[in-house]
UniProtKB/TrEMBL annotation:
Any one of the GO CC terms: cytosol
Essential cofactor(s): Mg(2+)
Keywords on record: Amino-acid biosynthesis, Branched-chain amino acid biosynthesis, Isomerase, Magnesium, Metal-binding, NADP, Oxidoreductase
Organism: Caminicella sporogenes DSM 14501
Binding-site list for substrate: S252
Protein name: Ketol-acid reductoisomerase (NADP(+))
SUPFAM superfamilies membership: 6-phosphogluconate dehydrogenase C-terminal domain-like, NAD(P)-binding Rossmann-fold domains
Protein's gene: ilvC
Record flagged with keyword NADP: yes
Residues annotated as domain KARI N-terminal Rossmann: 2-182
Length: 330
């Protein structure tokens, strides 16, 4: 098993003599800022004037200033705004204020790995990426535990970037659970691959294909929704708690036999070949280039596909059925 690092291998002192600017107060930003604060770290939040998050951060007890101000007064700057905004915010409001020996911190490797942000050689650059959404990172920390994370060092000008990364992971509570070392390349490429082939692209197309097949064969849309989408959660919860073994232990033997016999006909050699192709496009930078261009052009493809997806019958039937489910938070 890969080496895990825990609290005892991380020294918070590397952060305690620093001032940390958390840029952005969204999913990750609010969790990092509050956890660091409660770990005794000197934190300031960087936002823009007119930001919706500003009041929230202040009412949570944090000091908030504009991004440039935060970058000026801090020596550890953490970029926790959406990835596609990071380059322009960095260039305009952060880069001019980077001093020798400062640290630039990320929670995802995209902008560094694909050279959208090329920091000067006189700063440290590292990543601490929690393996969970921000609200979980915050909730679990408050319970005295942590969400596991990955960490990676891109450059270590001070020679202490790795120690800093571990200290940061400790500050947000991650070393309570364990952190795993990776590289910006590995984190970025596997993250993109996972979301495209399995988690987001793979799962939604699988659900739609199942739903369409049943509906086109004359079955009720509502039944198709329950079988192909709603029940996904039950299965995923079991997978999450206990892997394939627990899921297969919990389902009926009929379901388990069907699983063994049919799964490979659905996700077949062609699918695996296509996955390899997708991975190559991620590795070569082809996907990154396409997505960056798409953003430069105000997302023509993104917007039209989004619209088309919203007109799929599964959307309407899902809305109606979920309105019957009192336990789902609106
Ligand atoms: P969010 O979309 O939640 O970040 C939104 C925050 O950024 C808001 O506080 C928003 O303010 C602020 N913001 C937007 N534009 C600016 C700007 N120009 N200047 C300053 N602040 C701005 O981001 P995430 O937390 O989802 O992602 C942050 C990073 O963490 C990304 O690199 C992502 O890949 C990574 N990550 C995310 C995970 C997740 O679970 N979401 C998991 C692991 C990593 P306002 O709302 O007021 O506009
Ligand atoms: Mg991602
Ligand atoms: Mg069934």
């Amino acid at each position: 098993m890969a080496k895990m690092y825990y609290d005892k291998e991380a020294d918070l002192n590397y952060l305690l003599n620093k001032k940390v600017a958390v840029i952005g107060y969204g999913s990750q930003g609010h969790a990092h800022a509050l956890n660091l604060l409660e770990s005794g770290v000197d934190v300031v939040v960087g936002l823009y004037s007119g930001s919706k998050s500003w009041k929230k951060a202040e009412s949570d007890g944090l000091k908030v200033v504009e991004v440039a101000e935060a970058a000026k007064e801090s020596n550890v700057i953490v970029l926790l705004i959406p990835d596609e905004l990071q380059q322009s915010v960095y260039t305009e409001y952060i880069m001019p204020y980077l001093d020798e020996g400062d640290a630039l911190v990320f929670a995802h490797g995209f902008n560094i790995h694909y050279n959208q942000i090329v920091p000067p050689e006189y700063v440290d650059v590292f990543m601490v990426a929690p393996k969970g959404p921000g609200h979980l990172v915050r909730r679990v920390y408050k319970d005295g535990k942590g969400v596991p994370a990955l960490f990676a060092v891109h450059q270590s000008y001070t020679g202490k970037a790795r120690e800093m990364a571990l200290a940061y992971a400790k500050g947000i509570g991650a070393t309570r659970a364990g952190v795993l070392e990776t590289t910006f390349k590995e984190e970025t490429e596997t993250d993109l691959f996972g979301e495209q082939c399995v988690l987001c692209g793979g799962v939604t197309e699988l659900i739609k294909a199942g739903f369409d097949t049943l509906v086109n064969a004359g079955y009720q849309k509502e039944i198709a929704y329950f079988e192909c989408l709603h029940e996904m959660k039950l299965i995923v919860d079991l997978l999450y708690e206990g892997g394939f073994e627990k899921m297969r232990y919990s389902i009926s033997d009929t379901a388990e036999y069907g699983d063994y016999m049919v799964g490979k006909r659905i996700i077949n050699e062609d699918t695996r070949k296509e996955m390899k192709k997708v991975l190559k496009e991620i590795q070569s930078g082809e996907f990154a280039k396409e997505w960056l261009l798409e953003n430069k052009l105000n997302r023509p493809v993104f917007n039209s596909v989004k619209k088309r997806e919203l007109s799929h019958p599964i959307v309407e039937v899902g809305k109606n059925l979920r309105s019957m489910m009192s336990w789902i938070e609106k």
